[in-house]
Q: What sequence folds into this?
């Protein structure tokens, strides 16, 4: 059963007087529990696709379904609800709220849904191995720890899918490997993950690698997953 | 729970920029305290006017000489010389008239030993004392025989007695008015704060003495009448007016040569002018509150721009427009609430301290002008400051809530 189904997604941006077609008809199906990497050179449209998949933006045309629900025509606030309940974001720059403790950052998505938060947030922090630092502010944490908090925030709502945009881009390689290990673990537990990267070694962690070029899917690779894991440094 | 958390978030956001937040709060503090102080001052002025009117006596009707034309020009340049002691006697016989007192006034140099003071000499009758609500402090008031005999006796207002005699008891001593000797029979009780009427600083002499032995004239400056019931004042005014028209031989449509006013009219006029004064003070203060509101808007706009990324993050993890709107509105309201509370404290304190300052005493011409703090003014300015927070916080908050999450997340 597909968690994500995108059909003929087109996205145009207006730059001054000209319309630029960034996505030129992308079809994509991602099944529950899949771990997919999205690769492509800059300008290939992978960030735009990522924004649409994450419901931060809507396509100019085409249909997009999450859990069989069409979301390409929703209003701002309806999209906010979909983001809150079904999508977990992990960003390259962590995007934690400064001045706010780790646990409060993790609780935030649940607050916006009006759900009890403290226990779930502690559990999420625990699963990324950071329960002992729950009351630290982001500036008291290392880069790797911040990204773990961000992952905890992404998984705390038990979303249908986790979208990670270059999650290791701002980390040194050892910490990067640790973070990728967390994603591997989440994947083993059945969480659906879409990871945007330009790094082939990162992409090798995924079951499937989708290469974008000039707003279209150029090719799709299927990784022998076991081989990919043993090869990784 | 939601509000507690939102309030906490707002406080921590404001604490991140202490100086800026403090300045925005200060703007509201100044506005709110100014409104409270100005209302208190205005109310104080009103209370003061009320008080002095009550001291002057209530249920009063005044008759003044009117303006008349003399000579060929036809311009009304002179004062009518038609109010006489006979008029006073006639008015005394009218219904509902409790007492009538004639008044004839002029300024003279008053001398006691080597003390010289300029003071108003008022020629009147003993009826003046109950009408004007005076009580005798020492000695006695002159009586009817003094009026019949045109005696050179006088009663001193407390103010002039103090100025001329200092610690000496004036009763039985002689003063000179226009180089004529007058014996002091008594001193009136100090009414205080009547500087604009000057009754405390006047010398009272029998009306006949004043007319025939001092001023050398026949007409009065004023007739003061007290009426036995407040609801009969308007009726009595009409009766007195028609009586005087008859006595003065005014025919047909000719204008009367006198003016008739009641204390109520005076009171209304005074209330109108002090009310206008209060409104003026208050509107000036309200302007400063609006300026404070603009200050809030300014820092909220800066804050929204600075925190674009935070807004993007919040939207990405599920914040709806109204969540962001609420967050920023609560923040601007927190500023205005803090400003409101501090402003009330400052305003109430200031309203009590300012009347004690020497400069204020000088400005209010020595009178005991107290400020009156009303609960309404506190409630009104508090509500108004909250409204300012919402009103001026709304635009920045709307701007924040409408940010596009993609752009907001990309913002550096």
A:
């Amino acid at each position: 059963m597909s968690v994500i189904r995108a059909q003929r997604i087109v996205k145009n941006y207006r730059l001054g007087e000209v319309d630029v077609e960034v996505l030129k008809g992308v079809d994509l199906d991602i099944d529950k529990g899949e771990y997919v990497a999205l690769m492509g050179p800059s300008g290939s449209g992978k960030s735009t696709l990522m924004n649409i998949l994450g419901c931060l933006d809507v396509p100019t045309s085409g249909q997009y379904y999450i859990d069989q629900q069409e979301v390409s025509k929703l209003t701002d606030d309806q999209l906010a609800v979909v983001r809150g309940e079904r999508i977990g974001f992990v960003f390259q720059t962590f995007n934690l709220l400064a001045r706010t403790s780790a646990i409060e950052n993790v609780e935030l998505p649940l607050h916006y849904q009006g759900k009890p938060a403290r226990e779930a947030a502690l559990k999420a922090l625990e699963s990324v191995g950071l329960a002992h630092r729950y009351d630290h502010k982001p500036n008291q944490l290392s880069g790797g720890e911040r990204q773990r908090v961000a992952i905890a925030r992404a998984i705390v709502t038990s979303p249908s899918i986790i979208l990670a945009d270059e999650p290791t881009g701002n980390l040194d390689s050892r910490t990067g490997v640790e973070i990728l290990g967390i994603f591997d673990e989440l994947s083993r537990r059945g969480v659906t993950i879409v990871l945007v990267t330009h790094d082939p070694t990162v992409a090798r962690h995924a079951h499937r690698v989708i290469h974008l070029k000039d707003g279209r899917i150029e090719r799709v690779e299927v990784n022998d997953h076991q081989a990919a894991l043993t090869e990784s440094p | 729970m939601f509000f507690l958390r939102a309030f906490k978030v707002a406080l921590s956001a404001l604490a991140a920029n202490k100086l800026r937040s403090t300045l925005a709060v200060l703007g509201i503090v100044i506005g709110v305290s100014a409104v409270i102080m100005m209302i208190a001052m205005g109310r104080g002025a009103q209370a003061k006017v009320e008080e002095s009117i009550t001291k002057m006596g209530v249920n009063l009707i005044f008759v003044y000489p009117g303006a008349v034309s003399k000579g060929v020009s036809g311009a009304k340049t002179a004062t009518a010389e038609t109010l006489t002691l006979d008029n006073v006697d006639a008015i005394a016989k009218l219904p509902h008239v409790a007492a009538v007192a004639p008044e004839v006034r002029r300024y003279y140099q008053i001398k006691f030993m080597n003390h010289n003071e300029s003071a108003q000499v008022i020629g009147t009758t003993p009826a003046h004392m109950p009408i004007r609500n005076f009580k005798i402090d020492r000695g006695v008031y002159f009586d009817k025989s003094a009026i019949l005999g045109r005696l050179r006796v006088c009663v001193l207002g407390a103010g002039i007695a103090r100025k001329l005699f200092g610690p000496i008891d004036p009763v039985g001593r002689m003063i000179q008015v226009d180089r004529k000797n007058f014996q002091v029979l008594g001193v009136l009780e100090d009414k205080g704060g009547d500087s604009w009427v000057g009754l405390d600083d006047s010398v009272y002499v029998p009306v006949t003495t004043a007319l025939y032995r001092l001023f050398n004239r026949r007409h009065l400056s004023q007739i003061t009448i007290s009426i036995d019931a407040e609801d009969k004042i308007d009726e009595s005014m009409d009766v007195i007016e028609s009586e005087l028209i008859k006595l003065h031989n005014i025919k047909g449509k000719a204008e009367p040569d006198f003016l008739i006013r009641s204390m109520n009219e005076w009171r209304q006029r005074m209330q109108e002018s002090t009310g206008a004064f209060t409104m003026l003070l208050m509107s000036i203060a309200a302007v400063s509150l609006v300026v404070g509101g603009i200050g809030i808007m300014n820092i909220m706009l800066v804050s929204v721009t600075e925190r674009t990324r935070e807004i993007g993050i919040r939207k990405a993890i599920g914040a709806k427009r109204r969540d962001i709107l609420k967050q920023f509105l609560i923040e601007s309201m927190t500023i205005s609430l803090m400003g409101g509370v501090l402003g009330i404290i400052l305003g109430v304190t200031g309203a009590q301290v300012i009347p004690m300052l020497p400069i204020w005493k000088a400005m209010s011409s020595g009178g005991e002008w107290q400020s009156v703090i009303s609960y309404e003014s506190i409630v009104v300015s508090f509500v108004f400051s909250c409204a300012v927070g919402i009103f001026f916080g709304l635009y920045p908050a709307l701007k924040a809530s409408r940010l596009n999450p993609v752009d907001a997340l990309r913002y550096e």
